[in-house]
Amino acid sequence: MSKPVYLITGANRGIGFEITRQLLSSNDADVIAVTRSSKTAGPLKDLIAAANETPEKAATSKTRLLEFDVTNPESIKAAVHELQTSGVSKVDVLINNAGILMNRGSPMSALSNLDFANILDTNVVGPHNVISAFIPMLKVEGSKKIVVNISSGLGSVEMNSGNMTGGYNVSKAALNMLTKQYSQELGSTGLTFVAVDPGWVQTDMGGKHAALKPSESVAAILETISLLKHGDNGSFINRFGKKLPF
Ligand code: NDP
User: Fold this and answer.
1) How many other CB atoms sit within 10 Å of the CB of residue 166?
2) Shortest-distance Cα residue to atom 16 of ligand 1
3) Distance between Cα 231 and ligand 1 center (Å)
4) What percent of the residues of the chain are helix, what percent strand, and what percent coil, each to the nearest 5?
5) Number of folded domains that form the chain
């Protein structure tokens, strides 16, 4: 039986890289690891090469590097076409992980239009661009039909405690609503959409004092994804699968 195909954006570093690493080391999944530039994806290329190391593995594996920028719909469409014409017909689990955090500590009132627009473009419009382009591959018969949007506890309106993260909080609240919107629009077709808070993780974004190692956060996220049911469609959950308030 063929392995489920996971597609992960922002796979060249941080949480996305660790998701790719753990999935490939489990040997239970093929991974389409997305980077916006293969020039900054050295370690990721090594992971992929190791997964496809023997001719036997390479012959059946769908694991590969894919390049697109989530803010560029044309680059995403070209990537979908590249996959479909190279023997990858379906995606089982799409993980919208790419994201940016700018102006940490800056009050909302000091955020420039341009920075705010960039944050929304990457963290909200980006996942929308990716989901809309991949719907046909997610809907293919036999796909697990799962979309995971990597959100943040900072995106919860109810849990907001005045944390100054400029437009980031706003973008993740909007990502949560995007998740809900898609869940309602496409839930009847069998697709399951969830927004997941990974916790505070030691990455370039989370910083070295963060509470969790990428390996801890990602192990919990992958376990939670493996247990998702269609009844979870439209939820905002933490890495352990516990529901969070919008
Ligand atoms: P990093 O900053 O370490 O990595 C971000 C990744 O996103 C990089 O691979 C980056 O690529 C990619 N990316 C950014 N913009 C684009 C774009 N336009 N197109 C394609 N890829 C892009 O962040 P983390 O790994 O920490 O974060 C991953 C996700 O988890 C984010 O959505 C973040 O908001 C969320 N999160 C993280 C937390 C943490 O504590 N770390 C806490 C809560 C949520 P490149 O290398 O090319 O820049």
Assistant:
1) 21
2) 98
3) 28
4) 45, 15, 40
5) 1
| Residue 246 maps to a domain | no
Ligand 1 mean position to 191 CA, how many Å? Answer: 24
Residue 77 forms part of a structural domain: yes
Helix (H) or strand (E) holding 24: helix 14-26
How close is the Cα of 235 to the center of ligand 1, in Å? 21
CATH of the domain at 104: 3.40.50.720
Asked whether residue 234 is assigned to any structural domain, the reply reads: yes
Q: Which of 205, 208, 212, 217 for a ligand 1 pocket mutation test, highest count of atoms within 8 Å of Cβ?
A: 205
Ligand 1 atom closest to the Cα of residue 151 is 44
Give pLDDT, residue 96: 99
Checking ipTM against 0.95, whether it exceeds it is: yes
Two tokens, residue 240: 């352990």
- Boundaries of domain holding 180: 5-238
For ligand 1, what atom is nearest to the CA of residue 12? 9
- Ligand 1 centre distance from Cα of residue 10 (Å): 6
- Along the chain (246 residues), what's the average pLDDT of each consecutive run of 10 residues? 93 98 96 96 96 86 97 98 95 98 88 95 98 98 98 94 84 98 98 98 97 98 98 98 98
- Separation of 181 CA from ligand 1 center, angstroms? 23
Whether residue 244 lies inside any domain: the answer is no
Q: Which amino acid is at 159?
A: M
pTM for this model (two decimals): 0.98
- Counts for the chain of helices (H) and strands (E), in that order: 8, 7
What single-letter DSSP state applies at residue 121?
Answer: I
